[in-house]
Design a protein that fits this description.
Length: about 500
């Protein structure tokens, strides 16, 4: 095993770029899968309750778009998981015992569940009972949601590692509590926030397509009926997004204060910390309220975290230099243990005790300068504002669109209809911006405070990584173009009976 060896910095950068590329493309498909699954389930339920064939035809149309999106989303998701083994083998070895468990459950249980019932959903019309078909539709959506749960559990663990113990003999972190991993506050909040944002994405997509139909004067009844369902779903979803977003802020302040400080561009913190709307425009005290639910709550800034500070409870937090020094002591003790644990049990026991003492700072030992602990502030800062700004606009739009539609006025307001069409790419921009905040904001960590990215990658030739990067870029772009083309053709050719 080549554990945490010195690597070409270019290999690290290209490995990160390749994973980011795959993740960004994958997240173009996942939220729409989650959102359309909910909306088409509601529509088929209306068909089951009312017995009106109109709702059957309407549900079938949205199912067609769901199927196109689902098929291409699977392809990018599979590649994403394989990259952990190819480009991030040190990471996979170091925490595979923990990280692999939720991914295995996702593949064996959730993916097979949705793959099974999706076949009944598409091919079971008039072959199985209405009740069984309805159950299959909802179980397809439930399978996709459960799949998201386990993937987000894995991601949340990277953000806040819990439920494990480091074994220096195997050089692996071993799981000690599955429940701690599966139901950590980070995992629960991330799941609720991410899935509800997917519901919002699906709602905005359906509203956008319906607005296009209304602009063209086609499929008017279906468009109005679908818009009603989607707008109500979207408004409710945005309320969940707002609530979980607030909770995410509290969890972030507790577990990843540097990410919060970067998202706010906060150099020096304190009590009654201000919330930055844009540079130079601040609202006093709001950040303290959002982060601690207390106007006088203490929020550390970037420089506080690097220099060391004392929190409101009187706890002294170490400076970056102190953490790095203790991390290097941990690495030195780890090396001594590995060299002696078979030949000199006494020396190994002493080294192990030192390692255990400094283990919370293990990952810091691979850093050389405090500046490495500061993420790209400008990128995190503006991504956060893009996410919140677009999300707020879309929430307002859905409320207004629903109000107008209930009064049968929306179809006559072409500028509102064009806004609905424009909202579709906007919701995707907001989703991507949210993941930039989540992932770039925790840099330089592959696993927060445990394993930096430069220690997690595989020893691969840079040329190989570059070739696969551009190959994936080409393939993913072609897949995306194919999906958009097929969807546009399906929408433009659809004629509701």
């Amino acid at each position: 095993m080549t554990f945490l060896s010195a690597l070409d910095p270019s290999a690290i950068d290209w490995s990160r770029a390749q994973f980011a590329l795959t993740a960004c493309y994958h997240w173009l498909f996942v939220p729409l899968t989650l959102g359309l699954a909910l909306i088409m389930g509601i529509m088929e339920t209306l068909y089951y309750v009312k017995g009106d064939a109109f709702w059957k035809r309407t549900a079938q149309f949205w199912m067609k778009l769901f199927g196109i999106n689902f098929a291409i989303g699977v392809a990018t998701g599979l590649i994403l998981e394989f990259e952990f083994g190819t480009n991030w083998s040190n990471y996979s070895w170091f925490v595979g015992d923990i990280f692999g468990a939720p991914l295995a459950i996702e593949g064996v249980v959730a993916f097979f569940m949705e793959s099974t019932f999706i076949a009944v959903m598409f091919f079971g019309w008039n072959k199985v009972s209405r009740g069984f078909h309805l159950a299959s539709t909802w179980l397809t959506g439930l399978g996709a949601t459960i799949s998201a749960w386990w993937i987000l559990v894995a991601n949340a663990w990277m953000q806040h590692p819990v439920g494990m113990e480091f074994n220096p003999e195997t050089v692996r972190n071993e799981m000690t509590s599955f429940m701690a991993v599966a139901f950590s506050p980070s995992a629960v909040v991330k799941f609720l926030h991410t899935v509800s944002s997917g519901w919002m994405t699906g709602a905005v997509f359906v509203v956008g397509v319906c607005c296009w139909f209304l602009l063209k004067g086609r499929n008017v009844r279906m468009a109005k009926a679908s818009l009603n369902v989607a707008a109500v779903t979207g408004v409710l979803a945005t309320l969940v997004v707002m609530g979980t977003g607030d909770k995410s802020g509290v969890v972030m302040a507790q577990e990843q204060p540097m990410k919060l400080a970067a998202a706010e561009g906060l150099r020096r913190g304190g009590t009654q910390a201000p919330f930055s709307i844009v540079p130079g425009v601040e609202v006093p005290g709001v950040l303290s309220v959002l982060a601690t639910h207390d106007l006088n709550g203490y929020v550390p800034g970037i420089d506080d975290l690097l220099d060391g500070y004392t929190d409101a409870q009187g706890v002294q937090h170490l400076s970056a230099e102190q953490k790095i020094a203790r991390g290097k002591q941990a690495l030195q003790a780890f090396g001594q243990f590995r060299a002696t644990y078979k030949s000199d049990p006494a020396a190994a026991a002493e080294a192990r005790a030192t390692l255990q003492e400094h283990l919370p700072y293990f990952g810091y030992g691979y850093l050389t300068h405090r500046s490495q602990l500061e993420p790209p502030v400008w990128l995190v800062y503006w991504s956060f504002r893009l996410m919140v700004g677009i999300g707020s606009f879309l929430m307002l739009y859905l409320v207004v669109a629903l109000w107008l539609q209930r009064r049968d006025k929306l179809a006559t307001m072409r500028w509102m209809l064009w806004l609905g069409v424009a909202a579709v790419p906007m919701v995707y921009v907001a989703g991507q911006a949210g993941w930039v905040v989540a992932e770039v904001g925790r840099q330089p960590w592959a696993i927060y405070e445990l394993l930096p990215v430069q220690a997690a990658v595989s020893q691969l030739p840079v040329a190989n990584i570059m070739v696969t990067f551009f190959l994936f870029l080409l393939v993913f772009t072609l897949l995306l173009a194919a999906e958009v083309g097929i969807m546009c053709k399906a929408i433009s050719r659809h004629t509701a009976a």
